[in-house]
Write a structure and sequence with these properties.
Elements lengths: L2 H4 L9 H15 L16 H15 L7 H4 L3 H17 L4 E5 L11 H6 L1 H18 L3 H6 L8 H21 L6 E4 L3 H8 L5 H16 L5 E6 L3 H7 L7 E7 L2 E7 H13 L4 E3 L15 H7 L12 E3 L4 E3 L5 H6 L7 H12 L3 E5 L6 H7 L7 E3 L8 H10 L6 H5 L2
Parallel strand pairs: 1-2, 1-9, 2-7, 9-10
Antiparallel strand pairs: 3-5, 3-6, 4-5, 7-8
Length: 417
């Protein structure tokens, strides 16, 4: 099955104008016509011809695709569909919102309580997620949130609660008419992103995040994480003599997070200071996305064996791979994700370049990723909207985001109790 068959992102059969034009240009490069459903590589289209074809598309239609997408949509039919769909969306000047889900560390006591108390839509979706989690957490994450319970910072509760609030936020936006053109998740946020994209069902995702959090919580203590202003290559040099320290996340060109034993991180922080690079120890219970997570990988893999998994039905930008992925998200993916660095910067840049969203929505209980995303937008000043700005956010703030995303008629309903 080709990538375009696994992930058909661009609508119905291609518009005649794009299909006819594309058929003529490809025939020019190959010296003969090709069938619309035949892979171009089977007919000898090479990288040089593909780059020239990309230039033709840019000259004729403007910015519709990236060069590599000629291989992502490898037939005349699939590429023409993509071009026609993006041209139509651009011409209608519609809002194209990407959903970006935050990871662990964004939680806080009483998170989203204001939304829950004053938004009927959000309340219904959070209750739905909490009920799916209850067989594993034994108590409702809603009760934990409304009580302002400090146990929200224990990994066994943090991960299920974050998943639940992010799932509920996304479903509330969708119910209001805001449909994402692409999704991306940071760390535990990938589970909510995958659920919204259709790669995981809500019951399967609830089971996985609850087990994942519990297994991690019972790992030995003594791990930590440090945010740095180092570039990835600088961080790699500084941890070369510390085999238990790894790069946990790359959030921007000079925003690298390190993870490992506390004593080793202390030594690395001293080296960072000597090099004139700022760093800050994060408040976490364990060294996430580091070699110290390996002892729970086998156990997690064993409970994943019966996971059916599925291919995303929306463009899913993986922070494990740092790019768009089309393949089903089976057990090996979620097992690898435990220790793999979060390649947020790569994935976010790919999403912005390939999907060209008009807006990005940060879905999480407080602002974490928006500053990175705004900088990636460059001079274009990409509008980024956090659904929750922090503990005081409520349904009025949510209604404002929905209105800004062109779903104004439903905003008043959403804000009602």
């Amino acid at each position: 099955m080709t990538a375009s068959e696994q992930y058909p992102p661009c609508g119905e059969p291609p518009a005649d104008a794009h299909h006819e034009w594309l058929s003529q240009r490809i025939a020019h490069y190959l010296g003969r016509p090709v069938r619309g459903d035949a892979p171009l590589t089977d007919h000898g289209l090479d990288s040089v011809a593909a780059l020239s074809l990309y230039g033709d598309i840019e000259e004729e239609f403007g910015p519709l695709i990236e060069p590599g997408e000629i291989w992502t949509y490898p037939t005349v039919d699939s590429l023409a569909r993509c071009m026609a769909d993006r041209a139509a969306r651009r011409d209608r000047s519609t809002v194209r919102a990407a959903f970006v889900f935050t990871g662990q560390g964004s939680q806080h006591e009483g998170m989203t309580a204001g939304l829950y108390l004053h938004s009927t839509g959000y309340r219904a979706h959070l209750d739905e997620a909490a009920e799916e989690l209850r067989p594993y957490t034994k108590e409702s994450v809603v009760d934990l949130i409304l009580a302002g319970d400090p146990r929200i910072h224990l990994t066994g509760f943090t991960q299920p609660a974050l998943f639940a609030v992010e799932y509920a936020m996304a479903r509330t936006l969708q119910e209001a008419g805001v449909q994402p053109v692409a999704v991306l998740g940071h760390g535990i946020g990938e589970f909510a992103a995958a659920t919204v994209a259709g790669a995981l069902t809500l019951p399967d995702a609830a089971r996985l995040v609850a087990l994942r959090g519990a297994f991690m919580q019972y790992l030995p203590a003594g791990g930590g994480m440090t945010a740095t202003c180092a570039a990835p290559f600088e961080a790699a040099d500084l941890i070369a003599d510390e085999p238990e320290v790894g790069i946990a996340a790359i959030n921007a060109s000079r925003a690298t997070v390190l993870s490992g034993p506390v004593d080793a991180l202390t030594r690395v922080e001293a080296k960072l200071a000597e090099a004139g690079l700022a760093s800050r120890r994060l408040t976490v219970t364990h060294a996430f996305h580091s070699p110290l997570m390996r002892p729970m990988q086998a156990k997690f893999a064993s409970v994943l064996r019966r996971l059916p998994g599925g291919a995303p039905r929306l463009p899913f930008y993986s922070t494990v791979r740092g790019r768009l992925v089309n393949e089903p998200l089976y057990a090996p993916y979620w097992t690898e994700q435990i220790t793999a660095p979060v390649r947020f910067a790569d994935a976010a840049r790919a999403l912005l370049a390939q999907q060209r969203p008009t807006h990005v929505v940060e879905i999480g209980p407080r602002v974490v990723l928006t500053p990175f995303l705004k900088r990636m937008g460059g001079d274009a000043e990409l509008p980024c909207f956090p659904v929750c700005k922090g503990p005081r956010s409520d349904a009025v703030d949510l209604a404002g985001v929905i209105s800004a995303l062109d779903a104004g008629p439903l905003a008043a309903l959403l804000a009602g109790a």
